[in-house]
């Protein structure tokens, strides 16, 4: 299938590793160009080297900084002359129960997870001169709670509903937005969560047993779906939440 991504330009956040890096790889392989945003500048430099300076440019910055989103959008237009969308991925909040996480942790997570993603969407839509496609990386917690992840359970469903509302608001201009819900993808984040338990190997085995495919997904498996949803090949998909989880989500 021809995705129609040649020469299109996307902002990709959390792009130094994991889902962001994997999606940047697929987008460039399909002919797109990318603005890579992450805090680790040295790692981003290596990613640009891998993808090629003609295809990628890096912005080493923290999405929690209110100016980062607009800086990324401006860099896309300044470097490549256009902007067509974004994969919006933000850091995961800390573990904890509903009564265990502190007010400070909730506030910090709202800034880093909720507002950071919203700012990127706003900047991309406001800067692009034509229709855009956006994919917000959420979590299966948008539809079903994850044990011990109260902050994620509290924030992700709100972002999921905003995806539906934003689809209504930008649809008349030809723009699209979707939410993607990775679950059990073998990233640094997942490995960190397992390591935080008393038995990391046991936590992994238990998690794999709950997945219909009985294995964790690879970041590249997520990235191929995300790239499709961002592409013109998915031109009639908007306002949807798409699970990329190996069948772990039990709700419809």
Descriptive report:
Helix 5 (150-170) links the parallel strand 5 and strand 6. The chain has a seven-stranded parallel β-sheet, sandwiched between helices. The radius of gyration is 17 Å and the shape is globular. The model has no long low-confidence stretch (mean pLDDT 94). Helix 3 runs parallel beside helix 4 and helix 4 packs parallel to helix 5 (150-170). Helices cover 44% and strands 14% of the residues. The chain has 252 residues and is α/β, with parallel strands linked by helices. The chain has a single domain (9-185, 218-244), classed as NAD(P)-binding Rossmann-like Domain (Rossmann fold, 3-Layer(aba) Sandwich), CATH 3.40.50. The protein contains eight helices and seven strands, in the order E-H-E-H-E-H-E-H-E-H-E-H-H-H-E.
């Amino acid at each position: 299938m021809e995705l129609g991504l040649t020469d299109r330009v996307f902002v990709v956040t959390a792009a130094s590793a994991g889902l962001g890096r994997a999606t940047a790889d697929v987008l460039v392989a399909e002919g797109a160009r990318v603005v890579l945003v992450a805090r680790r500048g040295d790692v981003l430099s290596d990613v640009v080297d891998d993808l090629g300076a003609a295809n990628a440019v890096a912005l080493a910055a923290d999405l929690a900084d209110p100016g980062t989103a607009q800086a990324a959008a401006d860099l896309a237009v300044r470097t490549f002359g256009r902007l067509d969308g974004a994969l919006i991925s933000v850091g995961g909040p800390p573990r904890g129960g509903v009564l265990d996480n502190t007010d400070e942790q909730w506030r910090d997570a709202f800034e880093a997870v909720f507002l950071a993603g919203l700012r990127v969407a706003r900047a991309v839509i406001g800067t692009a001169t034509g229709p855009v496609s956006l994919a917000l990386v959420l979590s299966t917690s948008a539809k079903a709670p994850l044990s011990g992840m109260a902050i994620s359970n509290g924030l992700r469903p709100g972002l999921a509903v905003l995806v539906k509302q934003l689809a209504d608001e930008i649809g008349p201009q030809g723009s699209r937005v979707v939410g993607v819900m990775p679950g059990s993808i073998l990233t640094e984040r997942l490995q960190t969560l397992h390591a935080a338990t008393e038995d990391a190997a046991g936590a992994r085995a238990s998690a794999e047993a709950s997945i219909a495919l009985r294995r964790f997904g690879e970041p590249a498996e997520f990235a191929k779906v995300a790239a499709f949803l961002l592409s013109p090949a998915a031109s009639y998909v908007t306002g949807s939440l798409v699970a990329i989880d190996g069948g772990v989500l039990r709700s419809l």
